[in-house]
Amino acid sequence: MSIIIKNLNFIYEKNQIFQNTDFQFDDNKIYTLLGPSGIGKSTLFDLLTGFKKPQSGTVDYQNVQRSEILTVFQNNQIFPWLTVSEALALPLKINKVSKGQTGSRVKRLLKQFGLEALAHKRPHALSGGQLQRVAIAQGLTLDPKFLLLDEPTSSLDQEAKEEIQDRLIEEQHTRKSTMIIITHDIEEAAYLGQEIILVTNQRLQKIANPTFNKNNRRQALEFYEFCIQLRKQVRQL
Ligand SMILES: Nc1ncnc2c1ncn2[C@@H]1O[C@H](COP(=O)(O)OP(=O)(O)OP(=O)(O)O)[C@@H](O)[C@H]1O
């Protein structure tokens, strides 16, 4: 399962975003995507889901349907009249998943994302961080093969951020799916990314994979050393 980008060119009027870009996203991985504001990260998501079409070049899907690629946006809105449980059940209902399966899936996600106590609340009664957790959980209900996450932890405090990061790793590990995560947070890119990609010079550039011990890395000196190097690379863009 992979998404293969070949010789892709994408321009908004006179603003060239991607030029002769090649890249391959494989399955069973977390990719993190770094790059300055306005460089084209969200545009890349739209090209991957087929929402936008390149002027030339191709995006090929190998053993994956476009419907199996889902995006969770920065400001995902959940319908104001739905409770958290109903919001999580909605994509399953639309896809005619049985009631029994829907119930167990929703229950599992509520537990995993620490939303059990909020199950019957509506969005107006939730904080920004809680809404963000609901949006991520909702993105996972249909078990997408590729989940594209646009700044999934941007409105969370450090503790909540770390909790969500660990949930994402756990989810990816369990499902063997692929996540592509846009972030402006260097530590997050280093912590989550099995592959770190910089969007630069109208291309996607893979940078050295983190090689530090993945266990307990938040406490590891080598993790911080890696982040310092990564920060330098990003600043040079
Ligand atoms: N529909 C559009 N029409 C014209 N220009 C656009 C359109 N959407 C985005 N752009 C421009 O294209 C460039 C890339 O936008 P994009 O949203 O992909 O950047 P980004 O890297 O995701 O930014 P950020 O990190 O700030 O979210 C920006 O300069 C933006 O202003």
TrEMBL record:
Keyword Ubl conjugation part of the UniProt annotation: no
SMART domains: AAA
Gene3D superfamilies: P-loop containing nucleotide triphosphate hydrolases
A Gene Ontology molecular function term of the record: ATP binding
Domain of life assignment: Bacteria
Alphabetized Pfam families for the sequence: ABC_tran
Entry-linked InterPro entries: AAA+_ATPase, ABC_SmlMolc_Importer, ABC_transporter-like_ATP-bd, ABC_transporter-like_CS, P-loop_NTPase, RLI1
Name of the protein this chain belongs to: ABC transporter ATP-binding protein
Taxonomic source organism: Marinilactibacillus psychrotolerans
